[in-house]
Amino acid sequence: MLRVEIIANQSVEDDIIEGIEKNLPDLEYTIIPGVHGKGKSAHKLGNNVWPEENVLIFTYTEEEKAENIKEIVNAVKDRFPEEGISIFAVPAADL
Question: Which of 15, 24, 39, 50 suits a disulfide with 43, CB 3.0-4.6 Å?
Answer without folding.
Answer: 50
